[in-house]
Amino acid sequence: MCLAIPGKIEHILNAVPMERTGTVSFGDIRKEINLAFVPEADVGDYVIVHAGFAISKINPTEARKIFQLLANDETDPPC
């Protein structure tokens, strides 16, 4: 099973189209993420990230709903 989570773009680090990267915030955690698949995404946008790559933009309201669901889920998922 694959897991992709939302994050907020804080900085664009490299704007070269096929090498585009940025700092993405996942709450208290910040990671450098490849943004090449979402050329329309900019600072302040929310993106869905999987394995270090932003794969699509997401509506801020939907991102907040996912953050709430993750914060409320304190159980381990079944394997």
From TrEMBL:
| Matching SUPFAM superfamilies | HupF/HypC-like
Question: What biological-process terms (Gene Ontology) are attached?
Answer: protein maturation
Q: Which Pfam families match?
A: HupF_HypC
Concerning InterPro entries, the annotation shows:
Hydgase_assmbl_chp_CS (IPR019812), Hydrogenase_HupF/HypC (IPR001109)
Any one Gene Ontology molecular-function term assigned to this protein's record: iron ion binding
Superkingdom, taxonomy of origin: Bacteria
Entry-linked PROSITE patterns:
HUPF_HYPC
The regions listed as transmembrane in this protein's record are none
Which family is this sequence assigned to? Answer: Belongs to the HupF/HypC family.
Quote the PANTHER family the UniProt record gives: HYDROGENASE MATURATION FACTOR HYBG
Q: What is this protein called?
A: Hydrogenase expression/formation protein HypC
Q: Which organism is it from?
A: Neptunomonas qingdaonensis
